[in-house]
Specification:
alpha/beta, Nucleotidyltransferase, domain 5, five-stranded mixed β-sheet
Length: 436
């Protein structure tokens, strides 16, 4: 058991390399203020190694972790020295100690690491942490940005071993009087067997240029290791893969292929609705009543559902155009029941040819053209068996950060918080990083 009063103060403060000068506890409800000085001997000039002369002292107040349920402040009395050599370019210098706080930080080192873990790993709001530390939002966010960036930079293993890379867009923010949408691109390691999916990076914008610029900036061995590129039938992302990862095989996500087929059903249904009744769908119109049934998978419809769908189509689809679109969607879904690549290619080619027939509704012919343009990417799934599903799951994590953040103004703040939460960094490294 420690009985030395000075040593007991040091243990309570949690900084054994400092001298505790005093404690202020004047106002009820006010933070507890602890005055300290560093024991480090930095009297030698960093330029010429001459013995310095004491010049003055400056007190820096830092936000610290709560003590005994009360907010706490650490007042660090820094010694300032001057070099006696007239020819030395250093002039003056101030004692530094990263164990107390790095330069330009307003939180103590331990408080900053704790806040970074709480905001990043636990996904807590910055405002909540600021309230707990009894300081302002910007103080906490500055520490999270500095320590978070240092953690991501040191955790090089987080982005290694990527074989399948996914690109997808998420809405970042709406700005201006017209609430214009500003997008962000999620770069995701979609994983594979024995490999966990994780968010690699998030980029401002959803253009091919933004994605290509980031990919081109990565090391050549990393780019050479990418075998598959998953995407949601997006033209800009296909261009990014073509320009920057030409050797990677692009894979169109099956969910988005079927989703596109479902969108053609809706287009056809609305067109037929207008042609037959002269107005948009109303709750009693047959085609409006079956809109949900049309997008359901056939095997998920029971006998009652099939009978209801058939009856509504007979009542509202006199030429059978909507029914033909529904069959087209189901045949597209059947493509993913085939696991043999050769058989799948034959099936898709015949399907595209049949859908392009002049007797088909215009929406089916349009679907045929899309399948033809994306033929190679669609068939690549039957070899790679990777999807953009993990990318969509990362988007859900990103949206959680957006909800608890109640809106973002700066993309840099948005990026660091999303990467710390969804990027799954090695949090054991947080204790070793030094922000600069």
């Amino acid at each position: 058991m420690e009985t030395n009063p000075t040593r007991m103060c040091e243990l309570l403060v949690g900084l054994p390399a400092v001298n505790v000068l005093g404690v202020e506890d004047d106002q009820v409800g006010a933070p507890l203020v602890v005055h300290v000085e560093s024991r480090r001997d930095q009297a030698r000039c960093p330029g010429c190694d001459a013995r310095g002369q004491r010049k003055d002292r400056s007190a820096v107040e830092l936000v610290d972790l709560p003590a005994f349920g009360r907010p706490a402040r650490l007042v660090w009395h820094k010694q300032r020295w001057s070099c006696p050599a007239a020819s030395c370019a250093v002039g003056t210098w101030t004692v530094t100690d990263d164990a107390i706080a790095p330069p330009r930080q307003r939180l103590t080192d331990r408080a900053a690491r704790w806040a970074t873990r709480q905001v990043g790993k636990a996904g807590r709001p910055v405002a909540e942490i600021a309230h707990e530390l009894s300081c302002d939002w910007h103080t906490v966010m500055g520490a999270v940005s500095a320590y978070g960036e240092a953690l991501l930079a040191q955790d090089s293993a987080r982005t290694t071993g990527v074989e399948a890379l996914g690109l997808d867009e998420t809405l970042f923010v709406r700005r201006g009087e017209r609430h214009r949408k500003h997008w962000a691109t999620s770069v995701v390691d979609v994983g594979g067997k024995g490999h966990e999916a994780k968010l690699v990076e998030i980029l401002e914008g959803r253009t091919a240029k933004a994605a290509s610029s980031w990919i081109d900036a990565q090391p050549e061995p990393w780019r050479a290791g990418i075998r598959w590129g998953t995407l949601d039938m997006s033209g800009p992302y296909r261009k990014a893969f073509n320009d920057s990862l030409g050797d990677a095989t692009q894979v169109a996500d099956p969910f988005h292929v079927v989703k596109h087929a479902n969108s053609k059903i809706d287009e056809c249904r609305r067109r037929v609705q207008t042609d037959t009744l002269g107005h948009r769908g109303r709750k009693d119109d047959p085609l409006y009543r079956c809109r949900r049934l049309l997008t359901k998978a056939h095997e998920r419809l029971d006998e009652e559902g099939v009978a209801k769908l058939t009856g509504l189509l007979e009542a509202g689809d006199p030429k059978g155009e909507v029914r033909m679109c529904w069959h087209a969607k189901e045949t597209v879904r059947s493509l993913y029941e085939i696991t043999d690549p050769t058989l799948a290619a034959t099936y898709l080619d015949e399907l595209v040819a049949d859908m392009a027939d002049d007797d088909m509704p215009e929406e089916v012919r349009s679907l045929s053209g899309t399948l033809s343009r994306w033929r190679d990417q669609i068939l690549a799934w039957h070899t790679a068996f990777v999807t953009n599903g993990p990318t969509e799951s990362m988007n859900n994590l990103i949206k959680r950060i957006k909800r608890i953040g109640f809106g973002f103004r700066k993309f840099a703040h948005y990026r660091i918080r999303v990467l710390l939460y969804a990027g799954k960094p090695n949090w054991d490294l947080l204790a070793t990083v030094t922000p600069r």
